[in-house]
Structures
1.
Amino acid sequence: MSLPGVMAAAGVYWGYLGGILILLTGLCHGNSVERKIYVTLNNTAPCVRLLNATHQIGCQSSRNGDTGVVHVVETEEDLPWLLETGPTPPYMVLLEGHLFTKDMMLKLKGSSRISGIAVTYAKPPPPDGFSLDVPCPSDGFGLYTSDHGSQYAHCNGTVWNPLGNGFSYEDFEFPIFVLQDENETEVIKQCYRDHNVPVNSSAPEYPLCAMQLSSHMHAVTSTVTCMRRNSIQMSFSINPEAVCDSLIGYNVWSSLKPINVSGTLAPEDQVVVAATRMDSRSFFWNLAPGAEGTVSGLVTQLAAAEALHKVAENQTLPRNIMFAFFQGEVFDYIGSSRMVYDMEKGRFPVKLSNIHSFVELSQVALRNSSELWVHTDPVSRSNDSVNAEVQQMIQTLKAVSSGANVTLQEVNQSQALPPASFQRFLRARNIPGVVLTDHRESFHNKYYNSMYDTADSIRMKYPSGLSKDEALNYVTEAAQALSEVATVLAKTLYQLAGGNDTVEIKADPQSVTRMLYGFLVMSNNTWFQSVVRTDWKVNFEDHQPQYYVTASRSNLNTPTQLLMSVLANLTGQVVNFTKEQCQSPEKATDPKKELYEYFWVQGPLIENSTSRAPFCVRSTTHTHHAESPAFDLNEWGSTEYSTWTESRWKEIRARIFLVPSHEFEVITLALGIAVLLISLVATYFINAKADILFSTTEDSEVAY
Ligand SMILES: *[C@@H]1O[C@H](CO)[C@@H](O)[C@H](O)[C@H]1NC(C)=O
Ligand SMILES: *[C@@H]1O[C@H](CO)[C@@H](O)[C@H](O)[C@H]1NC(C)=O
Ligand SMILES: *[C@@H]1O[C@H](CO)[C@@H](O)[C@H](O)[C@H]1NC(C)=O
Ligand SMILES: *[C@@H]1O[C@H](CO)[C@@H](O)[C@H](O)[C@H]1NC(C)=O
Ligand SMILES: *[C@@H]1O[C@H](CO)[C@@H](O)[C@H](O)[C@H]1NC(C)=O
Ligand SMILES: *[C@@H]1O[C@H](CO)[C@@H](O)[C@H](O)[C@H]1NC(C)=O
Ligand SMILES: *[C@@H]1O[C@H](CO)[C@@H](O)[C@H](O)[C@H]1NC(C)=O
Ligand SMILES: *[C@@H]1O[C@H](CO)[C@@H](O)[C@H](O)[C@H]1NC(C)=O
Ligand SMILES: *[C@@H]1O[C@H](CO)[C@@H](O)[C@H](O)[C@H]1NC(C)=O
Ligand SMILES: *[C@@H]1O[C@H](CO)[C@@H](O)[C@H](O)[C@H]1NC(C)=O
Ligand SMILES: *[C@@H]1O[C@H](CO)[C@@H](O)[C@H](O)[C@H]1NC(C)=O
Ligand SMILES: *[C@@H]1O[C@H](CO)[C@@H](O)[C@H](O)[C@H]1NC(C)=O
């Protein structure tokens, strides 16, 4: 073979190989590069797994996340494609918020063609209401059970949350996320329109837009199972890792007259308790705006506390007043059951026998005209002495409301109490007490424990064009109305504590409106900024805090820190302490260190400066550890106490990307193998003929 011949042969060969390479790069370019471009969805909230003594509820994905081709469901007509005809299952459903209903979910739940659901946040919220909680919240853990007041058990008589479909307590085998940001939803829809829309009902072509939802949960079956697994891990594993944790938080409490937290009250000391809850929930993790369900009562009670602390004679009242804010109440009364438990065990300065009477604020922002309803417990009222005291409380309430724009009315005496922390106290002792609400029978709240229970749902309206600081101080109608309720509450408490009805007590609409703004619109405001402790890493955000109670082992959550800061500001005094004295008063020779808490707060911004002027605030604001007694007692199967735990997880993630077809992937693989084989053959060929191909130039010259 002459050299030019060989060269030509080699040239053809290299050309051939190069051609394949170019062909492959060209083919792969469109897909494999794009395929690597994941777009992470940054504003989502997952549904996670929770467990109680006997069941698991919530959602989870498979270990590495579930993937499916995106299909947008905007009307019922989009369903057949999803459930029957679509050629590329499994599908990831992008469900319009207003279609997130029981009917729809039952259809989707049964189908193996669905790998997960991403729900959009409906704006405006569904007008007919939306509640995924059960119709009879915390059934079985309140006062009425088969052993006590059984004629009222299971909401026999009054169904409190008739709109509730109970989805929050069901178990889903696939991931469900909510998309909180319209713009992100639009990104997904655009991807869907560009790639997945069926043309003339023929199958769309690859590459398709796909979504992956990852929310794999470690715990299964029940709290009993997962806690047992935890304890096995703890005793046998070198590096133990729990699979679930109990839901946990802190109750907040304070008193009008300081109480020595190192001791217990004398038996003759009497305390009037004002109570409300401080948590909420929704179907999705850490999403719980709780405007009517939680914040309406919380803010009203804070305003009443402020009003009472302003009364000059308050330290000479015959009885003390205690303000309690309970955590974890939506999960079968975690906070109140723990307080009752600790009171019984003598681990709390106030004992059950010290409680003179109990006034609870439930949902109070949605009053029809000016009505405020008084609920009482028919079972305890069958005792004459208790009944007489309850009557007395109602008389007091009626008397003080006559001056205010509040029409106080009693519900039918044979009606049971609505869900309330007070039920846990009544379980332990017959305490005279009332629960105040805006509803006579079932809730006025159409969005009970859902993501739509927001400032809008309690009709908080601001004129447009207000700056942040103007909005903070703008007195809305909602705030005005709640301050009237707060005035009634404050006056009632004052008289129950033995005070004189001639004393002037009035809640301040200005502080009510600032609180509503901070707790429901924007925690990042100048007032909240100035009242928080400097050592608290509060997560100030340009939206409202979420009142969801989780299994977080870390210290106080953001709403608790905010609540305590505001409570201390409204009921405390500024004291002339240095930072060191304030942060560790036990070192200072303060004779009252057991009576007060000291907060070194950020203080207001100094004029024309970015630094703040911190100071020390002394108040009776205390925390109380709120973990269900079931975990103190290691009774994981308890039917007496809440047993809710939250599963642990490694990763929560939602993202979209383009997938190539299976055929394409197979072709890519086949071509890859082909190239490999050809290369091997080529290498062998080149090796074998190396002497000819790369022969020295000497020989060539000689040949010439
Ligand atoms: C989420 O954030 C990442 C990083 O900031 C960004 O690349 C991505 O585009 C965001 N996702 C969406 C849907 O905007
Ligand atoms: C656990 O939760 C499920 C679902 O809500 C409920 O049916 C069951 O009664 C609960 N178990 C206990 C012991 O409360
Ligand atoms: C969405 O995008 C629009 C226009 O880009 C912007 O004005 C709006 O603030 C964005 N909304 C959110 C919630 O980010
Ligand atoms: C869809 O069908 C219509 C009528 O059958 C036809 O005119 C149109 O070209 C089709 N479109 C595509 C993209 O095939
Ligand atoms: C608080 O109670 C403890 C224990 O009973 C006692 O030693 C202490 O002096 C009390 N403090 C005040 C200020 O009364
Ligand atoms: C109160 O309820 C009971 C039983 O539900 C009923 O018999 C009674 O008529 C009601 N009373 C009033 C005043 O509505
Ligand atoms: C009524 O309740 C009080 C206080 O709980 C109790 O001392 C009394 O014995 C009760 N009376 C009856 C008749 O049960
Ligand atoms: C209440 O105050 C009025 C006027 O200050 C006084 O006359 C009256 O005796 C007081 N009543 C009680 C029970 O202290
Ligand atoms: C809070 O508000 C201030 C002033 O309006 C602003 O500078 C800051 O960026 C905000 N912080 C957050 C986390 O939004
Ligand atoms: C409460 O906050 C206001 C406004 O920041 C401040 O003027 C006042 O001194 C504070 N009061 C207390 C007791 O912290
Ligand atoms: C505050 O305390 C410091 C020292 O502890 C003292 O010098 C100062 O006068 C006090 N100020 C007031 C207003 O009491
Ligand atoms: C803050 O700045 C304004 C305008 O620059 C000035 O009029 C004012 O005197 C300054 N205040 C202080 C306390 O320096």
2.
Amino acid sequence: MTGPGAIPHIALADLPTPLEPLRRLSAELGGPRIWVKRDDATGLAMGGNKVRKLEYLMADAAEQGADIVLTTGATQSNHCRQTAAAASRLGIDCELLIEHRFPDWPDAYTEGGNLQLDRLLGATVIDLERGVDRVQAMEDRAAELRADGRRPYIIALGGSSVVGAMGYRTAAMEILRQADDLGLELREVVHATASGGTQAGLVAGMAIRRSTVPVLGISAGAPADYLAPVVRELAEGVIARIGIDREIADDAVVIDDDYVGEEYGIPTAEMHEAVSMCARLEGLLLDPVYSGKAMAGLIGHIRAGRYRASDSASANDVVFIHTGGTPALFAYR
Ligand SMILES: *Cc1c(COP(=O)(O)O)cnc(C)c1O
């Protein structure tokens, strides 16, 4: 924890995460040099992007005297797994309200992967049916807990509140510092976006550093016109919370929803190709729900010539953030 007036923070992640070249994938695609930011390697219980958010969320919960955290997600939520692990590490209880969208899928999906780890980590799992209002369900459960004398703290879906997004403003700074150390000329930072907190933090961090490096979020579910205002509001919230004088530029929030496919969590042919290319060319394991679709987006953009030499021909490095989710590989065939 830090001093008065500072933003409460508890260290949970192994930071900085590595920034590594994907030489064989870059050569195969014949486009820019691709670098992977290994946020799958944040350490806690198989890692992932939520650990950076939880450093701020769990500190806020502790400040508020919480003795139990509640959060929500889909059956194979990586966010729920990482929250359960953070709660275990800090010795507080955790309840996960899990929405089962595909209850008829094989057991590997409905019971394995992340959900198996949630239980192993000691979280209490409350099952919700598809389409239930998850925000209301968490508020109702928190009211019951309060009536029992408990002090619950609600963590938003995906940890995407202003507090959670704080964790990705520092990730943006980390990327800029590492790129600088390696002498890279960054063309773009690309990552999977879903509840928006990761992208919001990145956009805010770039603004804080007055960087012009663009951030491209490839949606794993939500339509871009729904998600973009959410990301912007969270990014502005981060700026306001820090109390720094910055504007989020009009064109700073860029989301591509062309790689979602049928629906969140449902595989696409492009995802399969991206996951197997990274595995076979780089020994790098992506996930089927987020980073696989995001990499499919990056590959699609490279093939379409997005990074072809232009006026900024010196900038030839693209950073792909591996946001984690590898345990979900075991839930999918
Ligand atoms: C949650 C998650 C994301 C999306 O991050 P948001 O902050 O919710 O947009 C991306 N990749 C993985 C593996 C995730 O678990």
